[in-house]
Amino acid sequence: MDDISPVRQWRVPASLPAAKLAGGVLLVALGLLFADGDPVRLVLAVLAAAALAVWAVRDLIAPVRLTVDQAGLTVIRGFAGRRLLPWAAIEAIAVDRRPRLGLTSEVLEIDAGESLHLFGRYDLGATPEEVAAALRVARRS
Question: Is 64-140 CATH 2.30.29.30?
């Protein structure tokens, strides 16, 4: 391969699961602080915190979201599974940019015919444009 090593991975930044877990603790603390004897508020806070914790656990169990090698791309599938997409199955690699609330969001799109795989900046630990460029180089090699 030209500009990349034989195997290259993009993963969730290490600080992200910690931030999600801290957010969950903060939600429970706020639920306790503002419940005022109302169990519904506390239950909602605990449920939201549990959802954040599950999301953080996924980041810890399967931090690698995308891997590229000579065979193709390996993408995350489901909660923590993996799926190999051979180069022949990949129809397009693109970056979708959309303005939202005064900010522009970027998403890496990998079109594999029957499946579309989407990755944001926090899935990859890099900008989608950088990853798309690296994938295009690997595909040509």
Answer: yes
Q: What is the pLDDT of residues 35-53, one digit of tens each?
A: 888 899 999 999 999 999 9
Is the entire prediction scored with pTM above 0.85?
no
In 3D space, the residue among 68, 80, 91 whose CA is nearest the CA of residue 138 turns out to be: 68
Q: Which residues, 6+ apart, have CB-to-CB distance to 89 below 8 Å?
A: 72, 112, 113
Query: 27: Cβ–Cβ under 8 A, 6 or more apart, which residues?
Result: 45, 46, 48, 49, 52
d(CA 1, CA 86): 16
8 Å CB contact between 58 and 79? yes
